[in-house]
Each structure stands twice: as structure tokens, then as C-alpha cells.
Design a protein that fits this description.
- With 448 residues, this protein is mainly α.
- It has one domain (19-220, 241-427): MFS general substrate transporter like domains (Growth Hormone, Chain: A, Up-down Bundle).
- It is built from 18 helices and four strands.
- The chain has helices at 21-45, 47-54, 60-76, 78-91, 94-114, 118-121, 124-141, 144-154, 160-188, 191-207, 210-218, 241-265, 267-273, 279-307, 309-334, 337-365, 368-401, 406-424, and strands at residues 3-4, 13-14, 431-433, 439-442.
- The chain has a two-stranded antiparallel ribbon with strand order 1-2. A two-stranded antiparallel sheet has the order 3-4.
- Strand 3 and strand 4 form a beta hairpin.
- The radius of gyration is 22 Å and the shape is globular.
- The two termini are 26 Å apart.
- It is a multi-pass membrane protein.
- It comes from Bradyrhizobium yuanmingense.
- Belongs to the major facilitator superfamily. Metabolite:H+ Symporter (MHS) family (TC 2.A.1.6) family.
- It is found in: Cell membrane.
Length: 448
């Protein structure tokens, strides 16, 4: 490993010869991210069953709302985890912060999986479930910022978009895995068994991969001090005027992304409770949309490397806005498998592309010395405010209005706000462009 020192920071940095770092970084960061998001998100797929186990009530709606409220509790501690672990990643390195996050998530998912039901231990059951969700939230709050920074710093300049797109893609992989597990369990278990312990099986499957994930994280090379361009690494003085703007716009876009993601993740519960379709079809809805989302996330990153960040944010976002209401109207009126699977699949394909471009744009726009903390904190606050409330709000509005189109209106509102913010985001791609969008010579962009 090449080691060099700069006059500004007498610290060892990885030399340009360490190109193999990129594959190891993507593999290690992505697999760890998948496991963490699987453990955190599986709860939403089994919200009804977990509600019956920990929050029994005579009214099914009350039980579901209590369960979704506990799901939302996992978002309360995400900003705290983002600040603590994000700052730690900017100070000590990306790897130790990611490893600490993974260890806490491991403890939380095991606690949730083995906690007895309310019938067995009474009030202690929901209290333990809430504590486990709070710990999960803290761990995941410190996951996204350091991981995104790590992926960007490990990638060559010309492939940053694709490398960073593995962050949202890995989240889609986790959601797909959760939906696939739910689909398999719903097909192989009776309703009574699924309600009694099927959700515990899903959590324990994730827990079984924890030792491998922890090992993978612990042996990753560090990227914090790796130079991002063939220029001396400097420590900027103070905050640049554009940092606050990028962070404010990023918050709006991440809020929209959060709402879209969690409303889409709610489709299993929506299909069961509102559309009254079969359980296998309900799980298949989320499975298909998330599978499409994986390809769309990677495609967004690849396109962002080729034609710039802003174009890939703006035009697919416009298309998704135009499609949202017609797709949900089709689903609500037909309630067919084709509408559910095909409509949501196409909407997910178009709607996921802009956010991959945004991820790399925001990571590039933030200075390295605050990148982990800033990205994590903005992401966590957006998630805490809008992710933790998205599913309860949609459930409550559907209950209040009786309209199956509530998810569409909520997604339209969020998507329009994101589009406005995307239009104001600067272009951060380290490329020169000509009017016909053809790529020209690569030139280094000034380091933030």
C-alpha cells in the first residue's frame, strides 16, 4: 500500500495504485448495508402479525396503528445515531463507524426476534419491542452517511455515480429480500402459523447472516484519507456558502425519497387491508417493485456518470409525477394482479432513477471533513420526520376518507417538492459537457 503525506495534514493516505479498493469497498459496504436494512425493514412487512403479538386489541385498526407506531419509533433515534456515528466517521474513519453501526443492529434484531409475546410476559413485551426499534434506529442512523461517503471515496472519479448507486440499490435488495421471505412464508405456512411465529423466522434469517457481515465490515480498508484527485489534500477553513444550500435542498429531496420509499414499502399492508387481495399477491407486489428498483437504482448511477447528475434527477422525476395518479387509479379500480405488479413496477422503475443521481451529487457537493456527518444527519432527520410518519399517516387518511388513492396524493405532493429542489441543485459531475450532451474530456472538479 502506497503511503504519502501532505503538508496540510500529516496523515497517511492511500495512494492511487490501490485501485482494487473499489471492488472490495462496494462489496463490503453493500453487503453490510443490505443486512442492516433487511433487519430494520422486515418489521414493516409483518406489521399486522407483530401488532397482534405485541399490541393485542379488540379493534384490528388500533392494533395495526400501535404496531406502525412502534415501527415509527425506530426513526426517533436515527438523527442521534447519525450525529454520533457520522461525526465518528469524519474523525476516526468510515470503517469503524460502519462496524459499530452493524454491531448495534445485530443486538437489536436478535432482541426483537426472541422477545416473547404480550400474552407470555405482558407489558414487558411491547416495551422490549420499542427498545429494540430505538436501538435499530440509532444504528441505521449512523449507517447511510458513512457508507455513502465510503463508496464515493473508494470509487474512481469517472465511476462515482455507479459506485454510490449501490447505496440505494442495496436498500432495494434488502426490501426485496424481506418481501421474498414474506412471500415464501405466506405460501408455505398457514395463517395461524404466520401470525404466531412466521415473522420471527423472517427476523432470525437476517440474524443468521450477522457474523459474516460483521467480519466483512471489520476487514475493509479505510478511505477517509484517500486523495480524491491528483492534488494536495487540504483541510478547508470554515463553511463554504454553498454547503448550507446543498444541505437544505438535500433535505427536501431526501424527504421526498423517504416518503416514496416507505409508501412503496407499505404496499403489502395496503394491498391486504385496503384492496383486500390475497396474502401471496400482497407480498408479490412489494417483491416485484423492489426487484425493479434494484436495476433502476444502478441504472440511475450509471447514467449520472455519462450525462451528468442534474439531467438524471430532473427528467425521470417529471415522468414519475405524470404517471403516479393514473397508475394508482388503475390499481384502485381494477384491483388486479396485473395492475398491482405491472403498474407499481413501471412506476418504481422511473421513480427510482433520480435518487441515485442525487445521492452522488450530494456526496460530491459536501466537503470530505463533514461528508459523513452531514449526509447522515440530513438523511436521518428526513427519515425521522417523514419516514416514521408516512405509513401511519397513509393508514389514518385511508381510514378517514375511505379513498384508496391516498398513497398517490401523498407521493405526488412529495415528488413535486423534490422536483423543485432538484431544479436548484448544482451540477457536481467532474465532466465537461457540450450542448448536445456528448461527453468530452474528463477534467478534475475543484475539491470541496
Amino acid at each position: 500500500m502506497a503511503r504519502q503525506f501532505t503538508p496540510e495534514r500529516m496523515e497517511p493516505v492511500l495512494g492511487p495504485a490501490d485501485e482494487r479498493l473499489t471492488r472490495r469497498a462496494v462489496l463490503g459496504a453493500t453487503i453490510g448495508n443490505i443486512i442492516e436494512f433487511y433487519d430494520f425493514g422486515t418489521y414493516s412487512f409483518f406489521a399486522i402479525q407483530i401488532g397482534q403479538a405485541f399490541f393485542p386489541a379488540t379493534d384490528q385498526f388500533v392494533s395495526l396503528m400501535l404496531s406502525l407506531g412502534t415501527f415509527g419509533a425506530g426513526f426517533v433515534t436515527r438523527p442521534i445515531g447519525a450525529i454520533v456515528l457520522g461525526s465518528y466517521s469524519d474523525r476516526a474513519g468510515r470503517r469503524p463507524a460502519m462496524t459499530a453501526s452493524f454491531a448495534m443492529m445485530s443486538a437489536a434484531v436478535l432482541l426483537l426476534a426472541i422477545t416473547p409475546s404480550y400474552e407470555a410476559i405482558g407489558l414487558a413485551a411491547p416495551l422490549l419491542a420499542i427498545f429494540a426499534r430505538l436501538l435499530q434506529g440509532f444504528a441505521l442512523g449512523g449507517e447511510v452517511g458513512p457508507t455513502t461517503a465510503y463508496l464515493m471515496e473508494a470509487a474512481p472519479t469517472k465511476a462515482r455515480g455507479l459506485a454510490v448507486s449501490f447505496q440505494p440499490a442495496s436498500q432495494q435488495v434488502a426490501a426485496t429480500a424481506g418481501a421474498l421471505v414474506g412471500e415464501i412464508l405466506s405460501l408455505t405456512m398457514t395463517s395461524e402459523a404466520l401470525n404466531a411465529y412466521g415473522w420471527r423466522v423472517a427476523l432470525l434469517l437476517g440474524a443468521a447472516t450477522l457474523p459474516f457481515g460483521f467480519w466483512l465490515r471489520s476487514v475493509l480498508p479505510e478511505t477517509l484519507h484517500r486523495p480524491e484527485a491528483p492534488v494536495p489534500v487540504t483541510q478547508p477553513e470554515g463553511r463554504r456558502p454553498t454547503d448550507r444550500r446543498i444541505m437544505s435542498l438535500g433535505f427536501v429531496i431526501l424527504a421526498s425519497c423517504t416518503i416514496t420509499t416507505y409508501v412503496t414499502g407499505y404496499m403489502t399492508t395496503y394491498a391486504l387491508n385496503t384492496l383486500r387481495v390475497s396474502t401471496p399477491l400482497a407480498f408479490a407486489t412489494t417483491l416485484i417493485s423492489n426487484t425493479v428498483g434494484i436495476s433502476a437504482a444502478l441504472l440511475g448511477g450509471l447514467l449520472a456518470d455519462r450525462v451528468g447528475r442534474r439531467r438524471i434527477m430532473i427528467w425521470p422525476q417529471v415522468t414519475a409525477l405524470l404517471m403516479t395518479y393514473p397508475v394508482f387509479l388503475w390499481i384502485a379500480e381494477s384491483r388486479s394482479a396485473f395492475a398491482l405488479l405491472g403498474g407499481l413496477g413501471v412506476l418504481t422503475l422511473i421513480g427510482t432513477i433520480p435518487y441515485s443521481a442525487f445521492y452522488v451529487s450530494m456526496a460530491e457537493g459536501l466537503p470530505k471533513y463533514i461528508r459523513g456527518r452531514a449526509f447522515a444527519t440530513i438523511y436521518a432527520f428526513a427519515i425521522a420526520i417523514f419516514g416514521g410518519t408516512a405509513q401511519p399517516i397513509v393508514t389514518w387518511l385511508i381510514h378517514l376518507t375511505g379513498s384508496a388513492l391516498v398513497p398517490a396524493w401523498y407521493m405526488l405532493f412529495a415528488g413535486a417538492a423534490a422536483l423543485c429542489a432538484m431544479l436548484m441543485m448544482p451540477e457536481t459531475a467532474p465532466l465537461n459537457y457540450v450542448p448536445d450532451h456528448r461527453r468530452t474530456a474528463v477534467t478534475p472538479r475543484p475539491l470541496p
